[in-house]
Write a structure and sequence with these properties.
The structure is a single chain. It is built from 4 helices and no strands. The chain is mostly helical. Helix 2 packs antiparallel against helix 3.
Length: about 120
């Protein structure tokens, strides 16, 4: 699971950085919220989780880790795409969809936090 999370994180990094470059070139920063969330929740958070799952091989074996993986990876794309579509004024329906994606992502992050706090122990 750690390797998968790191690879997914790199994809978010590439998309987030590309979006940042696009905004810089065009001087249109309307999607900066998407850019920031993609880099923080996609690149940084998933990469750190992946590294922790590799460093502590018992952590990804838990049901909390599996819930984290799926909730984070389902909620985040829904949130990112919906925020972008809402900001671009495609339809106001995307604001509540973005919120739903955010709630799913937060639940995933809380599963990760629970897993680390409950199961991470110092080596004897």
């Amino acid at each position: 699971m750690g390797i998968k999370l790191i690879k997914i994180a790199v994809v978010y990094f590439l998309i987030g950085i590309s979006l940042g470059l696009y905004m810089s070139v065009t001087h249109k920063f309307v999607l900066s919220t998407v850019h920031v969330h993609m880099n923080l929740l996609g690149w940084v958070s998933l990469a750190i989780a992946g590294i922790l799952y590799l460093l502590f091989p018992h952590l990804p074996l838990t049901s909390a880790a599996k819930a984290h993986f799926w909730l984070h990876n389902i909620g985040l794309p829904i949130m990112m795409i919906s925020i972008a579509l809402a900001i671009l004024e495609v339809s106001p329906v995307f604001f509540p969809i973005a919120t739903l994606g955010g709630v799913v992502t937060v639940l995933g992050v809380f599963c990760f936090g629970y897993n680390v706090l409950k199961n991470l122990r110092a080596k004897a």
